[in-house]
Amino acid sequence: MTSPGETRILVVDEDPQVGRQLGELFRAQGHVVDCVLDGRGAIAALEQKDYSLAFVDFRIRDTNGLHLVRDMKERWPDLDVVMVTGHATIQGAVEAIRIGASDYVTKPFEVEEILLATEKVIEKRRLVDEIAWLRGQLAERYSFANMVSRNPRMHEIFSQIEALAQNDATVLLTGESGTGKELCARAIHFQGRRRGGKFVAINCAAFPDTLLESELFGYQRGAFTGAIADRVGKIELASGGTLFLDEIESISLGMQLKLLRVLEEHEIERLGGNKRIRVNMRVIAATNVSLDELVARGAMREDFYYRVNVVPIDLPPLRDRIEDVPLLVNEFLRNSEMAKDRGVDRVSNRALQQLMSWDWPGNVRELGNVLERSILRSQGGVIREVDLPGRDRRGPEPARARGTDYEVPLKEFLRRAERDYLAHVLRKHRGGIGASAKHALVDAATLHRKMKAHGIRREEFRARGRARDPEVEVGGVGRLPAVPLPTRH
Ligand SMILES: Nc1ncnc2c1ncn2[C@@H]1O[C@H](COP(=O)(O)OP(=O)(O)O)[C@@H](O)[C@H]1O
Ligand SMILES: [Mg+2]
Fold this sequence. Notes:
By secondary structure, the protein is of the alpha/beta class. The chain contains 21 helices and 18 strands. The longest helix has 27 residues. It binds adenosine-5'-diphosphate and magnesium ion. The site of magnesium ion (MG) has 3 residues, from helix 7.
């Protein structure tokens, strides 16, 4: 075994000059290199030592490069092989990829090209090792009240929730859609002393103002046309339990005032009623926009904001805790009826690798949807790479990837569209404010303001690691898009 971080490379080329050149190049990169002249030498070397990577020339003396690649991959499936070929044998390179080579380079080669191919393979291996390690970690439990995570920030949140469950403080959950805000709200309720009462959720964006009012406050019969019987509102229902106000950014200024009164006086009146009713509920609110920003531009009352923002909890997006993907996948497969029905209980390493390289604009919810679709396509109890819905990793159209939802009010629809647009532009310009502002034909201050309103941080677009950079194809076939990957799972 080579020490961690060290890569042992085997060069197979009948020209000793090439072996020397490549050897020098790789050693300068800190790798360990052996050179052999033919197939027999290659097999002998592989039998003796543990290599990560082999560069195999297409033309070698005692066999042909393709046969050698096939033999190598058969006996050492974990070995990555890069085929070295002259222009005339490009077909051979395609064939090599098909039988399991990770990449190919053409002769005469540029140093950069060789280094890039090597880096790609090493990066891929690092990911694979990481996945193997993460799979090992699955045995350990990282769960709290239906939530799983192995991210330190999430663990802090779990402890915070545990503590919050013991009191009645108003909690404000922020975070992108699908990050688990509602799940946290439920955890606070069901872990706490209010668990005997009801958990009542209301999505404030789903109702126009007047409807929201009657949903929240209820009404007396005859309060308005159509009020043919008394109706208990959500606030009353939640009395003794927890009221979860989702998407509070869409509550109108007028309704904020009404809610503020309830929160301060612990009393409500049904619409059209004249009796004051005592209520005693805990309030948990959620939003995926920056409320500071709403306050700043007068769309949210400051007093309402302070009343709601007592204990803020910000849930990190899935892309910032990508190590949670294997855990969530496992959890999802364990709990999904569809997975059970179809006997699907595994995901191939390659598929997992793929899932870990995506951006997940729709976060955990989107991951669940993707898995659901993949389960339907999968065969033999395993989700493989081919079962995953195809998509551009940069996600140029996140709105479509996540499914445009027309069942929301226009305001919400436009808000989401704006958010997707901003994310797209920022991604395209790698978080560059100047370039993004120019692209959008707005000034930088406006762009900043909008980003803040949507809770978008430029760091999310700047700090993409190499592994997630689509230019560095993890599977190693970046330049041969038409070639199907061999299925070796
Ligand atoms: N940490 C987690 N562990 C397991 N499932 C999760 C986790 N976070 C979110 N989910 C699941 O993802 C989906 C979206 O979560 P939800 O709480 O509705 O997100 P949000 O309210 O932020 O949009 C739900 O099906 C939820 O059960
Ligand atoms: Mg939600």
